Amino acid sequence: MKNISILSASVRHGRNSHRVALYFKNYLEENKLANVTIIDLKAYNFPIFEERLRFISDPSEAMLSFAEEITKADGVIIVTPEYNGGYPASLKNVTDLLYAEWKRKPIAIATVSAGAFAGTQVITSLQFSLWKIGALTIPAMFPVATVEKTFDENGIPSDPVGTDKRAAVFVNELLYWVDAKHKMDDN
């Protein structure tokens, strides 16, 4: 079975995007699509990094653990809020910490906002940063508008049928690229 990591990017108090990370964990497990790990940046409580991991002389256990989670994942779902048209510093921080670990890694991006635009303004800047380090961002999005109304604190959607239908398209696209990468690696 595939290993999918869900990177929950927000570290703010009272964050709401984590609801979407919980939803994807439940969705993938209930449908037996993958082994799932949530990588919660709030739990890591990382400092601002001054260098890539490979150049840090004495990396912390948390840094090594984070790098290992990304490395062993067959694919990653990044769940990011949109803050003023951009993604949080916590996400930029860990994106820049790693390099080889992101190379050709299939990544799906779910954008989240409290407003009506569903975090769609963040996608371009995040995709560009991931492309620059060689990640494989999949050509599907999962935008979530008015997150407080569409998901409860446990990740349960207010419209389960419609949400699961959108999630199926999004997740299937990620799994397609995970399979394609495995086939290319086997050649």
Q: What features would you describe in this structure?
A:
The chain is α/β, with parallel strands linked by helices. The protein has a single domain, classed as Flavodoxin domain (Rossmann fold), CATH 3.40.50. The protein is built from seven helices and five strands, in the order E-H-E-H-H-E-H-E-H-E-H-H. The protein has a five-stranded parallel sheet, with helices on both faces. Strand 4, helix 5 and strand 5 form a beta-alpha-beta unit. The longest helix is centred in the last third of the chain and has 27 residues. The chain starts with a strand and ends with a helix. This is NAD(P)H-dependent oxidoreductase.
The run of helices and strands is EHEHHEHEHEHH
The CATH homologous superfamily: Flavodoxin domain
Count the DSSP helices: 7
Unreliable spans are none
Shape: globular
The assigned CATH architecture is: 3-Layer(aba) Sandwich
Q: Note the gap between the termini.
A: 20 Å
| Major sheet description | 5 strands, parallel
Structural class: alpha/beta
What is the C-level CATH assignment? Alpha Beta
Portion of residues within helices? 40-55%
Number of domain modules? 1
DSSP strand tally: 5
Major sheet: arrangement of strands: 2-1-3-4-5
What's the mean pLDDT score?
94
Question: How large, in whole angstroms, is the Cα Rg?
Answer: 16 Å
Query: In CATH terms, what is the fold-level topology?
Result: Rossmann fold
Please report which band the strand proportion falls in: under 5%, 5-15%, 15-25%, 25-35%, 35-45% or over 45%: 15-25%
